[in-house]
Amino acid sequence: MPELENTQARLEAASDLPGLLAVAWDAFSLLLAACQDSENRSAELFAAFAFAAAAAAEGRLIIAGAPSLPAALGEEASGGVGDQPDLDKLADALAGLAGRLGERLSSAGRESADPGDRDACERASAQAVRVREILAPDWP
Question: What are the domain boundaries of the chain?
Fold first, then answer.
């Protein structure tokens, strides 16, 4: 899952709000694509992946309205995360990304001076947390 690891590394390395927002756009795009790709691969996990995809789409939409989002978005996710055979492990990995994304956006929202950025970060953080809760309800 190199794309997932790359996005996680970029999320950790983002040092300013515009950079974080660009990575957040990419992370939500990756979460959306991976969840949509996985929806029909397991009847047991269909609902979880479908609801997580909806939350990721909402998070990306919220980020799109942030005033500090760069005009040229980051490296948009090219698709899902490949043919991950173990959907439980994939769900856990996606939940980890979403959880960390939620933390970073929440922190950025508290520190932002711009009310539009603050609102976008707080609302997008809630969607990232929602993805994590859906994909890994027993997350520590």
Answer: 2-73+84-135
Is 81 in contact with 1 (CB distance < 8 Å)?
yes
**Length of the chain in residues, anyone?**
140
Q: Quick check: helix, strand or coil at residue 24?
A: helix
How far apart CA 136 and CA 138 sit, in angstroms, is 5
User: How many DSSP H helices and E strands does the chain contain?
Assistant: 5, 0
Q: And the tokens for 73?
A: 């978005």
Structure tokens belonging to residue 135: 């994909």
- Region 45-69 average pLDDT: 96
First to last CA, the chain: 22
| Per-residue model confidence (pLDDT) at position 74 | 46
Contacts of 37 (CB under 8 A, 6+ apart): 79, 80, 81
